[in-house]
Amino acid sequence: FAAIHPKFRTPWKNTILVGLLAAVVGSVTPIDDIGKMVNIGTLLAFVIVSIAVLVLRRTNPSQPRPFRTPWVPLVPILGVISNGYMMYKLGWVNWARLIIWLIIGLVVYFSYGQKHSRVQAIAAGRTPEA
Questions:
Q1: SS3 of 95, please?
Q2: Is the dihedral of CA 101, 116, 47, 17 positive or negative?
Q3: What backbone phi and psi angles, to 5 degrees, belong to 65?
Q4: How many CA atoms lie within 13 A of 128 on its CB side?
Q5: Which residues contact 53 (CB under 8 A, 6 or more apart)?
Q6: Is residue 12 packed enough to be buried (19+ CB in 10 Å), middle (13-18) or exposed (0-12)?
Q7: CA–CA separation, 102 vs 24, rounded Å?
Q8: Which of 3, 85, 97, 122 has the CA that lies 20 to 30 A from 116?
């Protein structure tokens, strides 16, 4: 599925597969539920970014950065609190959906990584694929 289109230089097979999957899920799921799933996933991403800002500012304070977050650690802490509260207000059904999608994503991620690991290929004496 990683075939790159010769003209557009995009992963066209994977794009079609994901588009079809999204169309099927979107056609059988109520729009309100889709909105809530998108909300909780996006809010989780914001929480992760806020935590990453806190961790990276602490562990690598001298690393050059093209953008500086103002008022660290206040802004990231407020981001975690406010986004966490909004996630909490979405209810347990959305949390269950989020956990299910995270488990599916982790299984796919680690299954792919097990087969395509560069470290494993080097350890086995093979040349890793680019």
A1: helix
A2: negative
A3: -135, 135
A4: 12
A5: 69, 72, 75, 76
A6: middle
A7: 19
A8: 97
Q: Residue 86 contacts by C-beta under 8 Å, 6 or more apart in sequence?
A: 39, 43
3-state class of 94 per DSSP?
A: helix
With 0-12 CB in 10 A as exposed, 13-18 as middle and 19+ as buried, what is 76? buried
Q: Are 47 and 87 in contact (CB under 8 A)?
A: yes
- Distance between the two ends of the chain, CA-based, in angstroms? 15
Q: Please state whether the predicted TM-score (pTM) of the whole model is above 0.85.
A: no
Q: Strand pairing partners for 4?
A: 11
- Encode the chain (130 residues) as per-residue pLDDT tens digits: 678 999 999 999 999 999 999 999 999 999 999 999 999 999 999 999 999 999 999 999 888 888 888 899 999 999 999 999 999 999 999 999 999 999 999 999 999 888 777 777 677 777 766 5
